[in-house]
Amino acid sequence: MIVLDTNNLLTVLLLFMRVFSFIVMVPLFGTFFLPNFVRAYLAFAISLSILVFSDIQPVEVSSFITFINLALHELAFGFLSGFFLRLLFDAVFVAGEIIAVNAGLGFLTMFLPQQPQTTVLAGFSTLLASTLFLSLGGAEAVYVGLAKSIESVPIGSFDIYALNGKVFLKLFYDSFSTGVKIALPVLIAALLTNVILAVINRFIPQINVFMVGLPLQVMVGLAVFMLSLPVIGIVLISHMRGYIMDFLKFVGSG
């Protein structure tokens, strides 16, 4: 039975800060397709469910300064946990951006007026990664990880100075390199297309290569991307399984 005293209410608020900062960072929940109030409601629902089904001891808050200190610790833990998982989706996002630019689809940003810095293929790639993540049970694993993190990292006990910064640098490097590897088939196809068009322009200068090249580049890029989708799915699934285990170890539940 939960007693609604001041310490319990403040504990719920601190747990909400941890979950909310995590949800805002992860594109699966915090992407621009979700309004802010949906993120807040989702974070509040997850926080209440963790509080009900977990044995969380109320935090003793003696002053306002103590509460602010605890809140900063919780926001930092949720932010870094979400950033850890976000790099998984950023790899696919980078791949979508690279494919869109090299396939001549960069102009499709006009179809996303609310996000002028994002191409359609980048948004599609993020949704594809989210679908694969959900199909692997990633959402359940993340929920269990957040619930178990209360035991390994109690509320207010997170020490940001104990983290190894090289881990995040390696994750950032792996995320970018994975995105390039995913986009590699389209990159090679775009390079070969440009080389062929350059040769044609050299030997037949009467042809307007720009008028012919842009539609050809778009068709070749989309065709190669569609043909490589099964392979991309297999690579992403294999990468996600290992990444989910690393995430659970990071939050202390693996």
Q: Can you give a write-up of this model?
A:
This protein has 254 residues and is an all-alpha fold. The chain has one domain (6-250). It has helices at 6-25, 27-30, 36-53, 64-102, 120-135, 138-152, 165-203, 209-250. Helix 1 (6-25) runs parallel beside helix 4 and helix 4 (64-102) packs antiparallel against helix 8.
For this entry, give a set of tags.
single chain, 254 residues, mainly alpha, 8 helices
> Helical proportion?
over 70%
What's the gyration radius in Å?
Answer: 23 Å
Poorly predicted sequence stretches spanning 5 or more consecutive residues? none
Task: Output mean pLDDT.
Answer: 80
Q: What is the makeup of the main sheet?
A: none
Query: Which term fits the overall shape?
Result: elongated
What letter string, H or E per element, gives the SSE order? Answer: HHHHHHHH
Beta-strand fraction estimate: under 5%
DSSP strand count: 0
Could you say which structural class the secondary elements and strand pairing correspond to? mainly alpha
If helices are DSSP runs of H or I spanning 4 or more residues, what is the number of helices? 8
N/C terminus separation: 29 Å
